[in-house]
Amino acid sequence: MLDHTDVQILEELSKNSRITMKELGEKVHLTGQAAASRVAKLEDNGVIEGYTIKVNQVKLGCYIHALLNIYTKSTHHQPYLSFIKTQEKFVINNYKISGDGCYLLECRFPSNEMLDQFLVVLNKHVNYKLSIVINK
């Protein structure tokens, strides 16, 4: 069970995972060594699974943020899943979901033309409903 300090540590690391242990300790009222020990324990217990970066997709030239509800044409999903694996440059997340649709696909595209090309091939495997993100 996490205590208040562990929760604070997670919040601070979520804001900046590159923070020094000394700075982290100051923010959660511990020494740097005590903060490092707490972080190591959170890692060992699997609470912290890894560290990552947040990439600005627009600065990479991917201006179109699309969400697609995916409706498979049969119970055999492998053709769709195989296609998605070949589209790593566009696909951010592919969630298997309950409710409306079988999957929720999150993608980024540099242009409407690239989105259209993707959709033409996607439609060979599944049906979809497209939504474009206007603002975050």
TrEMBL record:
Example of a GO MF term: sequence-specific DNA binding
Pfam families reported for this sequence: AsnC_trans_reg, HTH_24
SMART domains: HTH_ASNC
All copies of domain HTH asnC-type, residue ranges: 2-63
One cellular component (GO) term of this entry: cytosol
Tagged with keyword Nucleotide-binding: no
Keyword vocabulary terms for this entry: DNA-binding, Transcription, Transcription regulation
GO biological process, one term: response to amino acid
UniProt-recorded name of the protein: HTH-type transcriptional regulator LrpA
Species in which this protein is naturally found: Bacillus spizizenii (strain DSM 15029 / JCM 12233 / NBRC 101239 / NRRL B-23049 / TU-B-10)
